[in-house]
């Protein structure tokens, strides 16, 4: 679930309010806030679109993880999804460009080996 | 609701996932004026945007294609239509060529030929938004449609609400394309909570028929705390029980997980990817699978993580609005359907279209619906702005209110989920259990006659509750009517395929649900004795 709108980083651009598919954010004064956390679908799209990496979506869909902002910054997790997609300024390539892999099933067949039965 | 924003257009597209985006682009490319209204945001909405999608592409080699079509026909219980699969294979190739021209970086093989087998969602949908805008489409984000407008000539527009401003909107249009996706009952599969079935409900209220609603027994494995449903990754997993004993290895179809879960919790570890090279391949192919696990402190290649199953409803199931023609027409004039809002039986038959088939279907059905809707709209003998259109919405709307009680959407949604999500009712289907669940759902119907709270959330969620309740009723009605097991439909009492039921089940109506059968072109090919057990 969405756990953090960094009030230090938020520039009040409203983009998260606009792009959230389940309408979780609202503006309070000049900054965005989490207005309906229970409606969050943990899709990480807001993080991808936030231009200042002010948002953090914890992977847990149902329980609140209450992460610490400083810890998120230090571990590099704040903004990490946007960076991985390649939408951060100065990105060398995008996720789509990095995926030069052949067809998934072909790779699986070639490298995983035959499916193994257990207990038979 | 006071009318606050009004517009007239040629084509109105409802939904901003891939199908809606392609429909809008396609209609605009025919010269039609187009408005696209989405509940969320074209670019983030729907099942594709947050993750990605594998595409159905088969090289234009006659034998390869014929083989794929024949395989599907058999696997899909002879309910698919060969001509439609061929159409999809032809069309998707043209459209993916465009996606590449628009800037999507498909990888290339050694000979420099693009490998157009997979799309990363965020990039794909960002491109689609740009292209749709460039084509002149007016995009209304955060603007869920609530009901259709209609008259004796058919559908002629829709009404909805802007979630950010609270303003209501009304668009009169000569043609409407329903591209609102399937219904996944707020089960929190990645990107699927936008998909709550209002498109099916509003179409049914306007008289549209549904087909294939019984083929909806699809659950996807996900990391238990999380949302990401990438079952294909489990091809690289060993499944373990709570004591750490291996249960299964490299199950591509993950079909046995519900059975395993009956016995106790199931854990997975991608330990079949046992070299750096293999791990890197998987990590780059599906970053969305790994990122949440890593954030939770789990190394999926080493650690065992608990699995859950998330219900995928009609989304990775197959049912939806019945299509009546090659232009993705529905049974109501002026109303078209594309993507998961439409029944995908024509290309998938009785089995799931999950992954490749549905992705290519969204692209193709969107393109066809857009083209034919534009043609109709531009020749319309009864222009929408001169028609006496009525609003068709009733269930979970002020027009259907019959009691003084308040409609409290959240507990109602929870009550619907209680009947629809459990494996013991909906996966391990049996006549008495499904019939009892259907009865309990029927008894919830009077709740929809409550007073809708006059807030944005109240208005939108009341309609979502009404849609999920009725999609649930359609699913169980169809499941009880198909007294056999075929593809995604199973009934414990009828474990085998019955060749006499090689037809489609067509539903109509909301309060009273009508049901009839429709013949399929390849039914006569299901003749070989003993083959039924293989399906």
TrEMBL record, chain A:
<keyword id="KW-0411">Iron-sulfur</keyword>
<feature type="domain" description="4Fe-4S ferredoxin-type">
    <location>
        <begin position="31"/>
        <end position="60"/>
    </location>
</feature>
<protein>
    <submittedName>
        <fullName>NAD-dependent dihydropyrimidine dehydrogenase PreA subunit</fullName>
    </submittedName>
</protein>
<feature type="domain" description="4Fe-4S ferredoxin-type">
    <location>
        <begin position="1"/>
        <end position="30"/>
    </location>
</feature>
<dbReference type="InterPro" id="IPR050572">
    <property type="entry name" value="Fe-S_Ferredoxin"/>
</dbReference>
<keyword id="KW-0408">Iron</keyword>
<keyword id="KW-0004">4Fe-4S</keyword>
<dbReference type="InterPro" id="IPR017896">
    <property type="entry name" value="4Fe4S_Fe-S-bd"/>
</dbReference>
<keyword id="KW-0479">Metal-binding</keyword>
<dbReference type="Pfam" id="PF13237">
    <property type="entry name" value="Fer4_10"/>
</dbReference>
<dbReference type="InterPro" id="IPR017900">
    <property type="entry name" value="4Fe4S_Fe_S_CS"/>
</dbReference>
TrEMBL record, chain B:
<dbReference type="InterPro" id="IPR005288">
    <property type="entry name" value="NadB"/>
</dbReference>
<feature type="domain" description="FAD-dependent oxidoreductase 2 FAD-binding">
    <location>
        <begin position="10"/>
        <end position="355"/>
    </location>
</feature>
<dbReference type="InterPro" id="IPR015939">
    <property type="entry name" value="Fum_Rdtase/Succ_DH_flav-like_C"/>
</dbReference>
<keyword id="KW-0285">Flavoprotein</keyword>
<feature type="domain" description="Fumarate reductase/succinate dehydrogenase flavoprotein-like C-terminal">
    <location>
        <begin position="425"/>
        <end position="499"/>
    </location>
</feature>
<dbReference type="InterPro" id="IPR036188">
    <property type="entry name" value="FAD/NAD-bd_sf"/>
</dbReference>
<keyword id="KW-0560">Oxidoreductase</keyword>
<dbReference type="InterPro" id="IPR037099">
    <property type="entry name" value="Fum_R/Succ_DH_flav-like_C_sf"/>
</dbReference>
<dbReference type="Pfam" id="PF02910">
    <property type="entry name" value="Succ_DH_flav_C"/>
</dbReference>
<protein>
    <recommendedName>
        <fullName>L-aspartate oxidase</fullName>
    </recommendedName>
</protein>
<keyword id="KW-0274">FAD</keyword>
<dbReference type="InterPro" id="IPR003953">
    <property type="entry name" value="FAD-dep_OxRdtase_2_FAD-bd"/>
</dbReference>
<dbReference type="Pfam" id="PF00890">
    <property type="entry name" value="FAD_binding_2"/>
</dbReference>
